[in-house]
Amino acid sequence: VLRQLAELAPGSRVVxxxxxxxxxxxxxxxxxxxxxxxxxxxxxxxxxSNKSELAxxxxxxxxSIIVLATTQDDSEAIKTLVQLASLDDWANGxxxxxxxxxEETSGDIAQIASGNGAxxxxxxxxxxxxxxxTIRNPGLSAVISELGSIAGNSIAVQFVPNAVGKTVEExxxxxxxxIPVGISWKKEENQQETQAVVLxxxxxxxxxxxxxxxxxxxxxxxSYLPSRFEPSGPMSDSPxxxxxxxxxxxxxxxxxxxxxxxxxxxxxxVRGTRLTVLEPTPxxxxxxxxxxxRRTPFNNIEIEFAEGDPASAGAYEALSLSAFxxxxxxxxxxxxxxxxxxxxxxxxxxxxxxxxxxxxxxxxVEITDEANRDMFxxxxxxxxxxxxxxxxxxxxxxxxxPILGPIYRELLNAGGVxxxxxxxxxxxPVGGNYRFDxxxxxAQKKLEVALGVxxxxxxxxxxxxxxxxxxxxxxxxxxxxxxxxxxx
Length: 488
Prior knowledge:
By secondary structure, the protein is of the alpha/beta class.
């Protein structure tokens, strides 16, 4: 969170109130190189739900407040939200409050506790949604990671006077370093002014005077440059191939994400998806944890539970590892000083077992520390989800720009719009030359927004690419689009 804030608001003064010893906090920050950031960090020991402790750190002068979850049951965060909602001596009016809640079931209570005034980020649900979207769309983790970071491309909301009175189609090609992906406007709801957001609007959507554009951009502020666009070649008229949840999935590690992860897979899957959960704990205990709080049976997925040490070759003998379309390794090493150490052991074992097999298995790995990413890059891993970074990005960015809250929710919720990777040849004919403006046009004709390209030869995703670069359409290349979710 501090790294994000240093990029979003350099030079800021950040007060940290936590029930920890100051020397301990100072050492943790030193190890993480936080003193090198362009921030003034002030440390105070205290209970965040105590009103006198809040007064001691002059909370009434805060321009923004972030409440981090410190207990598994979210009790301390909820009590802190109650105390903040009760304050009435704010120096400049109530500041935006962003709160991390770990459990989905606590989200509504947290919102009530805040007087419906806080932006709630449910960390387990957020991470689960990113993982499930990545299961459906191999390679998506790189897109989400870039959009959530400050470097490179990110999401921005801006009013563009020159766009007023025009349609989305008319202004699409007028931003040389940005892609318009949505519209935001103010609306009244429950006697409160809120921000409405629609992503992937219809091409004939007329922009009103109070509309702001939502961009994926590599520059701030976004510049508007009138230009003429003519397609450089024909478009493909074939319907795009829609990604789906694979038929066979192996989940390795029964972390606290498991109940929400299964619920998310159930929401996205079609009937016939089979999941196997591998964990050292007896299957009856894992099943009890996985189904905790669920009132209705699963309809779209079948689940079996297997017992075994996932770092041991013997655990996979009865599973036929190559039969799985996707393997997801969750960060569940609670006994380790570094949870990613156990994850690395498991991934090394799986990589070894998959070596030389003809079947292509999509391997998704959750880690907790971005610094450990390099250790997994040369293994058989296609997608790395850094769960702590996802939550931190969401908390810091929503705290600075609250409109990003509903934008992220819309992107990750099932049934709305989604970021998807699809065959480039579904949009442009193979062998032809194209610029990114051609892709923007081709995707818009299919009621989608082109966000970038994944060039097979380069092995990487180019998000919001330069408009002057000319490429040739290859059969193995993919396009990154923002599109309506469709389940087949």
